[in-house]
Amino acid sequence: MLTPQQFRQYATIIAATTVTNISGLWLWRSLSTPTTNLTQEPEKTTLPSLTLSGHKGWVYAVAISPDGKTMASSGYDGTIKIWNFSNGQLLNTIDAHKDAIESLAISSDGKVLASGSWDNRIKLWHLASGNLIQTLEGHTDDVKAIAISVDGQTLASGSYDGTIKIWNLKTGSVERNFKHSSSIKSLAFSPDGKMLASGSKNGQIKTWQVNTGKPLHSLAAHKNTVWAIAFSPDGKILASGSQDQKVKLWQIETGQLLCTLDGHDKAVLSVAFSPDSQTLASSSYDKKIHLWDVDTEELLETFKGHAKPVWSVNFSPDGQTLASGGADSTIKLWSMSALSNKQLQNTTASSAVVEVVASEITDRAKLEELNQKLYDKIDQSWEKTPVWYENLVFCITVNVDGAIAKLETMNEPANKYAEQTPLPKLFNTAKSEITEQKSVALFRVVMTPTGVLEVSPWSGWL
After folding, report:
1. Domain boundary, last residue among 348, 370, 389
2. pLDDT for position 3
3. Considering only Cβ atoms within 10 Å of each terminal Cβ, which end of the chain, N or C, has fewer?
4. pLDDT tens digits for 64-117?
């Protein structure tokens, strides 16, 4: 064990031999739960069933074909990637646009993929081959959202230029223009294709009659940008997600607000309904995905796996999988079977989880003391040679005495290899040490393949 550096970040080197080369799909397991002093029941973490990498920047959009066999993703790098949805195999990469692609849509027959880009263009592609069918031009600023009607005949596009264009997909011509009061951020067709909803930068939601262009509702829906809107498949509810951190559900026919779902800590970037309209998924800049029961407004589950904001969520047609795209350049697939089991358990036995709210320690001297304590605990217990090939990132919560109160894995390698580290043992041992949890501190712990240990406050040294 080496003497740690007396600096803002502490490090140690553990003797390392050859690192094993790992290949194949990740096999996930949940490691850590909060102590019973913080919750009355252990928290169970649902981990992604598959993580797909390949984009060179933020993944803005994911779309799944109606037959559930193919998924498309797009992002800041201007490419579209086509994946086998069942096994995650990359089938094709299309160099699609000269700028970021923020929106994707697949036609109901699964033949046409549409992409909307910051280069002001919409492009239509053969999904199977990746060949370009047509380029639609007309917007004078970034295309932020696109949607295809259920009959596959019409495409709607919304732009930062404040206009919505209705395109005939057979001819490529613009049939109607709708003018919004602000830049368009989100669009969605109703399930019957007769209504179009739009969300704008100024927090307003508007609904339109598609065949006439007649405005139906104008809602002062949110205090800030409406990043996402979605119709429930049964055609009864419109969901919206906003920069104001709220998800709202609206009665479609009347425009009446049904409820507000609070749970995200930062902007809500995407919303999606399950095929049975029973569950709503919302993703956020806070890196989390929430799953809500639409009828009861209950928060059913939270998925934590992305290391950066989650820009897009989408359910598979059978409702068994949720796909998410994030600013960490990954697409993650989440099994909904665990949620189904949880819903069943909730109907047969009630179990309340009571969170104890603790204040965060901000005093610099105390943070330095706890930082050193945590570092020493891990360093003195780390005996095994690293067998991982990427940094393991953890978020560790300690109480005022330095005991570990909570352990969270923050990236895929940490999920897989955490049990090869001393952290789970330290956490389990700490359960008997917890005597005070009114004040806590959060630390970022990084364990590298070369044996370097880094410990620092999660929010940095203020």
Report:
1. 348
2. 32
3. C
4. 999 999 999 999 999 999 999 988 999 999 999 999 999 999 999 999 999 999
Residues 225, 294, single domain; the answer is yes
Are residues 443 and 315 located together in one domain of the fold?
Answer: no
Q: Could you tell me the residue range of the domain that residue 403 belongs to?
A: 1-43+353-462
Q: What is the mean pLDDT of the chain?
A: 83
In terms of Cα–Cα distance, which of 239, 295, 293, 294 is closest to 268? 239
SS (H, E, C) 302-351: EEECCCCCEEEEEECCCCCEEEEEECCCEEEEEECHHHHHHHHHHHHCCC
DSSP secondary-structure letter at 4? P
Residue 246: the pLDDT is 95
Q: Per-residue confidence at 437, pLDDT binned at 50, 70, 90?
A: low
- Please state at what angle helix 423-430 crosses helix 364-381, rounded to 10 degrees: 120
User: Is residue 337 domain-shared with residue 387, that is, in the same domain?
Assistant: no
Please check whether residues 265 and 315 belong to one and the same domain: yes
Residues 309 and 325 reside in one and the same domain:
yes
The pLDDT assigned to 276 comes to 94
